[in-house]
Amino acid sequence: MKKMLCVFLSLFLLNSCYKDDINGLRDDISKLKERMAQYENLLDALNKRLYVVSYETKDGSYVITLSDGSKLSVRNTSAFITIGENGNWWIDGADSGHPAKGDTPQIAIGGNGHWWINGEDTGVSAKGQSGKDASEIVSISLVNGMMTFTFADGRTISIEAAAPEITLDEPAGGFVLDNMKWLRIHPQVKNTSGATYQWLLDGEEIAGTQELLHAFAVAGTYTLTFKAKNGVGENVKTTTVTVNDRTYNNWVNRVYDFVRAPGQFANSYPAISDGDDAAAVLLKINTTITGKGLVSLGGYGGYIVMGFDHTVINKPGVNDFTVMGNAFANWAEPGVIEISYDANGNGLPDDPWYEIAGSEYYKETALHHYQMTYYNPMMDTERAEGATGTRWTDNKGNAGYVPTANWPKWLGATITVGGSRYKENMNTSGIVTTVPFEFGYADNWPNTDSRAGINIDWAVDASGIPVKLRGIDFIKVYTAVSAYGGAVGEISTEITGAQDLHL
């Protein structure tokens, strides 16, 4: 019995040892396959004439991005070798103190356990790399635009590593423009995968984009530097910008668009004749605004779009412009202000608009992305029998009638307007008064009140996210509320123009 038990135990132990050996062998084969796959992938990249466009360290591995978009993950690599700015060999981010000659390095682990480069002992320990399998990558080096992978048996594979290449179409003598006008530069860049960009003006960063759009407030000669950098390297282009001095008007010089909402002054301020079409009305509005005359926008949503003969520069910490109205004590008719810059360079206000986020913007009562449609009482086939005023519907499922039936005679069957809508600020107990919003609106505070000023830095995008604009070219104003005060009529934003506060 004892003998049988011994035989059984011996067989059990042998079987267990055998299973352990088999499992260990499987692990070794799996690791070998993985290492050989790295080798084969690198050879494949070399045969396809691919090159490295970027690299990053991730979870103990180097992730190499190749020019066809494919990625190589090189595991268990503890040494990254390159030439530092001081001309020395750097190993894993540390200065070895040994000067580099600039040639593609011959890297090996010496008998003393140190990294040896081009036959010289760097004195830097290669701890953890000794005894690696022949197919194991023990180092990656980046020298003279070549990324070299060194295996434990001394074999190497080198793949071209490409830093961004910049082509800048520069006029002879550099760029020349007037102050308060946009400078547009569109450099061509190759090898952009993972690239970051930087524009420096006389050493100060002004943009982090590939393309530059910049306006100069002051005439002079400037040095402009463009840098493009990826995981492989960096390239730099420098140019000169000459900015000439020019005199501008501080007042808006053109009206691009005008739509009046129904209201008591639907056909006045300025006076509109029966035969006036949209073009004739726009001409009258343009003459009125450039002459600093009064224009009524009508009820909620009525708007005007104006522009300057120059770019209004955003200067930090101060108000940049103001929209002139006729607000006075106890009577404010606030208008929403939107701003835009000539991003596409065509001189027209057809670029994205940004709202000035005034005091009402973030309140729970604010309605954003709001839209209202008015229906011409003389043409409205769905008008209720006996109804008075002008029918309206909105994009929130609401409908009703505004008290006035005064329709802008040059407009058609419907008027659709919108943007943001804010809670009415009218007090109808006793003498009708309106309370001004705290800040950020047109026709809200008297023109001489500092609270009438507008800071470009208050601008937000369509999602309500603050934006940093270097300047603006266009201003849009529309009536912010829908409110009626009996004999005094509707809240109707009224303006005389807009002024650049820096001129």
Question: How many H/I helices?
Answer: 2
Measured as a percent range, the helix fraction is 10-25%
Euclidean distance between termini CA atoms: 111 Å
Briefly note the structural class of the backbone.
mainly beta
- Outline, from the CA principal axes? elongated
Query: Which residue ranges are poorly predicted, with pLDDT under 50 across at least 5 consecutive positions?
Result: 1-25
Strand order of the largest sheet: 6-5-4-10-11-12
User: Main sheet, how many strands, which sense, barrel?
Assistant: 6 strands, mixed
Beta strands, count: 37
**Mean pLDDT across residues:** 89
- Beta strand %: 35-45%
What Rg, in angstroms, do the CA atoms define? Answer: 36 Å
Q: What's the SSE blueprint?
A:
Layout (H helix, E strand, L loop, with lengths): L1 H46 L4 E7 L2 E6 L4 E4 L5 E4 L4 E4 L2 E6 L7 E3 L4 E4 L2 E6 L11 E7 L2 E6 L4 E5 L4 E3 L7 E4 L3 E4 L2 E3 L5 E6 L2 E4 L4 E4 L4 E10 L4 E11 L9 E6 L18 H13 L4 E2 L6 E11 L7 E5 L9 E6 L13 E3 L10 E9 L14 E5 L4 E4 L11 E8 L4 E2 L5 E2 L18 E2 L4 E2 L10 E9 L14 E7 L3
Parallel strand pairs: 4-10, 14-21
Antiparallel strand pairs: 1-2, 2-3, 4-5, 5-6, 7-8, 8-9, 10-11, 11-12, 13-16, 15-19, 17-18, 17-20, 20-21, 22-24, 23-37, 24-36, 25-34, 25-37, 26-27, 26-36, 27-35, 28-29, 28-31, 29-30, 32-33
